[in-house]
Amino acid sequence: MAKTSSFSCGHHVIYPVHGVGKIKSIETHEVCGHALEMFVISFEKDRMTLRLPIAKAKTSGLRPVSTSKEMANAINTLKSRARVRRTMWSRRAQEYEAKINSGDPISLAEVVSELYRRANQPEQSYSERQVYQNALHRLAGEIAVIENIETDHAIEKVEKILEAA
Fold first, then answer.
1. Nearest of 130, 135, 144 to residue 105 by alpha carbon
2. What is the mean pLDDT of residues 49-77?
3. What is residue 119's predicted lDDT score, i.e. its pLDDT?
4. Contact call for residues 63 and 103 (beta carbons, < 8 A)
5. What domains, with CATH codes, occur in the chain?
6. Are strands 19-31 and 12-15 parallel, antiparallel or unpaired?
7. Residues 136, 141, 146, 151: is their CA dihedral positive or negative?
8. Which pTM value belongs to this model?
9. What pLDDT is recorded for position 92?
10. How far apart are CA 43 and CA 15, in angstroms?
11. Measuring CA to CA, which residue among 97, 81, 90 is closest to residue 131?
12. What are the b/e assignments for 16-49, b being 16+ CB within 10 Å?
């Protein structure tokens, strides 16, 4: 199994813009006459493969999957009371997208918590539901990898935590 820095073939990683991926291989490609070593990362959910130059891994935000302790902090964020904000949706949507694309589990938990709606609450707009689902799937995907469970079970777990909060 090839190993470069803290990332190894076969291990799951988090790429901020796409969520949980798995390093399939490390390949060398020639680009403009230069040999570049690249991670080949597969994203099952999106049926996508990303080739990321190893030299760009850190600056791209590629990171290992969170530890159980780090994820516990994100779960605590889900359990805390979501703050109600009165700013315009367009501004909040931009903030939410930035948090989602950061790949940080606590930021994801904040978005999920703030956009979660119980059955007795008013209906969300289409765009609110889309942002909520995106954040929920990113967070649940990482929980699923950490706990070695299916993503659907991780989603159920997150929604039970939100319902109990």
1. 135
2. 92
3. 67
4. yes
5. 3-64 (2.40.10.170), 68-164 (1.20.58.1290)
6. antiparallel
7. positive
8. 0.86
9. 92
10. 10
11. 97
12. eebbbbebeebeeeeeeeeeeebbbbebeeeeee
